[in-house]
Structures are given as C-alpha cells and as structure tokens.
UniProtKB/TrEMBL annotation:
The keyword Lyase applies. Residues 13-338 form the Amidohydrolase-related domain. It comes from Streptomyces violaceorubidus. Keywords: Lyase. This is Amidohydrolase family protein. The keyword Lyase applies. It comes from the Bacteria. InterPro entries: ACMSD, Amidohydro-rel, Metal_Hydrolase.
Amino acid sequence: MRTSIPAGTAPAVDVHAHVLLPEVDALVACLPGHAEAGELDARRNGPAALAVSGPMVRERVPLLTDAAVRLAAMDARGVDVQLVSPSPSHYHYWADQETAEKVYRLANEATAAHCSAAPDRLRGLGLVPLQHPGPAVHALDHALAQGLCGVEISSHAPGRELSDPAYEPLWTRAEETGAIVFLHPFGCTLDERLDQWYLSNSVGQPTENAVALSHLIFSGVLDRHPGLKLVAAHGGGYLPTHIGRADHAWSARSDAGAGCAHPPSSYLKRLYFDSLVHDPHVLRELIRVAGADRVLLGSDFPFDMGAEDPLGALRAACLSEADLDAVRGRNAAALLNLAIA
C-alpha cells in the first residue's frame, strides 16, 4: 500500500474494478451456446457500439491483466486498494452445469492469482452460476476458499429473477459467511430497443440495477436476510433517485406491499452502493437516501464508462469531511476488514 496515507486515515478503496481472464475466454470459445450468446450481445448493443468497444477493450488489456500495470494506474489515481471482480463478460450464464462449474472454478482461481501479486492492495471477488442455483453455494464456498471476499452476480439469469426462491440457499450462505455479493448487470432485456447510441449501457445498466434491487426488496429477500452484504454497482441505477414511487406503490396497493415488511426506501439503508453515478448531484442524493455509511468509492476501472479520476468525482460532490472520508474508503475498509494505520 502507498506509504503517504496519514495515520488514522482510511485507505482509498475502489470497490468497482475489473480483471480480464483469458483462461475463461479460452475455455468457452468453441463450446455450443457461446456463439449464440455472442450474437445476442451483439444484437443488444448494435454494430456502432461494438465498433467502439472492441478497440477500447484491446487497448486496456494490460490494465485488465497485468497486476503491475494496474498498481501503477492505481497510484496515479490515488487509489490504495481495489476490490477486483471478473469482467461481466465472463458470466456465461448460457453454459450447462458442467461447463458452468469449470467457468466459476477457473474464474475464482485466476482472480485470486491476479490479486496475489499485491495482497495488501488487491482483494478479489469470484463468480457463481446464477443459471444453476443448485451449485451456487458450492461456487461461493469455492471463491471464499481461494481467499476471495465474495462473488459478483448479474441482475438476473435466463428465466430467473433474483427474487426466485431457488436462490435462498445462496443468500443464506452469503449471510452466514459475511461474503460480499456485488451486483453488476451484464446485458439488458430491453434488447434491440437500446441498440443505438450505446443506450444498452447508459440506459440499460441503470435499468437492470433498478429491476434487480426491486426484486430483492419487494420479494422480502432483504427481510429474510438482513445481514446480506450486497453492493450495487452504478449507484443502484435508477432506483435510489426514484424510490419515492416505489414507496407510494407499497403503501397504495395491496399487491405491491404484499412481499416486504417495510417501505422500500428503508431497505436502501441495508444495501451498499458504489459512487459511480457520473453526477455530483446524484451522488449527494444517493448519500441522502442510503446514508453516507452505505456508499463506497467505485470507478469501473479501467473501462471507458468508468471514472478516470474517481476521487476527483467524489470531491466534486462537496461532501462534509466525515462523509468524504466514509465514502473514500472508511466504509469499504470496514466491509473488507482492512486495517487503518
């Protein structure tokens, strides 16, 4: 860790950073279903987006794969610790159960190996096969056995929302172990409606976040698992800034209020959110509704939809010193059990 951190100051901790795993890509490249999944992704994004994304990712491969290059970039940005998660392109929720087990084992082991290059500065998350809820607990246990802090999941799997009762064992095990569950969507089911102007990401990602979190809230998952350590990427998407509409539905309609015990807004204070909202006013609103103790620094390193200067984006919100310190790293340090000098 950088030695310039003043005594008593929490490290700057970025909880939203990715690693690219060529081993996983090689594993699935020629398997049945992989090409079809790629075609679906291409339709959802559109040709113009793919023409930009391909070169963008290729030029960032060293940042995504070489720990030394990553650490130098962290130093340049003033980031002391990253929580590194696999690129969401590695979910491969199309895979059969045998392939899915190979994917999560390889992803967990490769992520742990990447982080082992600087264990004081890099912590990691693994994967679970959401398309196969049965082995998901084993996948979480495997990730933890590699020394990872938890797992990354998407907003849904084909045919299953996060409210599906089949995921109850996963939530139970994550709560028991204190594992972090990082909710990061990949792909939006609005499909070709978003295939221009990169709407698949700018609109699709915050939509998927809002839908997934709403399923967890309204279904009562968070009532049954109050200790679940769930971190939502992209500031939770549209939900935190429009939570009043959810509260109104919960109080006005018997169908909306049937599944959860409290107003939806109250559950925001049980979740964690990264700070990657691209607008200081939205960040301040997120902190207002969720609490300064529930927001964590996030950059989406090193992709182009991320923040090149995540600490600068945080300072632009003109937070109090206490809130700035909390979001900058104190909250994440507590979540990851990091020592504060």
